[in-house]
Amino acid sequence: MLIAKGAEATITRENETIIKERLRKGYRLPELDEKIRKRRTALEARLLREARRVGVLTPQVLEEEKTRLMLEFIDGMKVKDILDAGNFGDIAAKIGEAAAKLHGYDIIHGDLTTSNMIINEKGLWLIDFGLGFVSKRPEDKAVDLYLLHEALESTHFDVMEQAWKTILASYKAHYGDSEKVIKALLDVEKRGRYKERSG
Ligand SMILES: Nc1ncnc2c1ncn2[C@@H]1O[C@H](COP(=O)(O)OP(=O)(O)O)[C@@H](O)[C@H]1O
Ligand SMILES: [Mg+2]
């Protein structure tokens, strides 16, 4: 069953397995395209495994092929669909904790939006490390948080201010080196606002 077809991949589900197949990009030279897709697929698998190892809930990688991953299907609700005034406190705290754990081990998710988070009785799961990478730089971690903030602003405006406070408090509580990231985040925000003003 086809679940999603994004810019980067098609997602199908067969029973308890998710198949994520990276799409060919017609505008790239075929050989280069294959190389890029293979590299992204391998990196996504590695990041999913590493995140899991450092205590963040992520789907198990069941099989890894050239441009295709078989992943454990996570049964739950997309945070995007359920975040509201009644539940954001607990969920926001979990989001902050998950981001802190990733960043503590230099894992940058790359697309921290509420579409890439699933919640169920086990907790908050992060999926889609397709834009992820490894970096020690506070600036890269700050951009991860900035994108999350932007996503909240555009999809959960009603609860966003409170949720963001809770996320940051939880992030700081779970990441000893968060100060440098928060400082870098202020710079990223400044640049963001400047960009908006100057078109
Ligand atoms: N392991 C999984 N368990 C359950 N649903 C998943 C899983 N992986 C992907 N999905 C569903 O498919 C959608 C797209 O997958 P995602 O990995 O985010 O790809 P894309 O790069 O296209 O955003 C997700 O938003 C989610 O609804
Ligand atoms: Mg996604």
Description:
It is a single chain. The chain has two domains: 2-72, Phosphorylase Kinase, domain 1 (2-Layer Sandwich); 77-197, Transferase(Phosphotransferase) domain 1 (Transferase(Phosphotransferase), domain 1), CATH 1.10.510.10. A hairpin with a 2-residue loop joins strand 2 (9-14) and strand 3. It has six helices and ten strands. The longest helix has 24 residues, at 30-53. It is globular, with a radius of gyration of 17 Å. It is 49% helix and 20% strand. It is of the alpha+beta class and 199 residues long. It has helices spanning 30-53, 79-82, 88-104, 138-155, 160-174, 178-197; strands at 2-5, 9-14, 17-22, 61-64, 68-72, 77-78, 107-108, 117-120, 123-126, 133-134. Magnesium ion binds at residues 115-116, 128. Magnesium ion is lined by residues 115-116, 128.
Task: Put the structure in a nutshell.
49% of the residues lie in helices and 20% in strands. The chain is built from 6 helices and 10 strands.
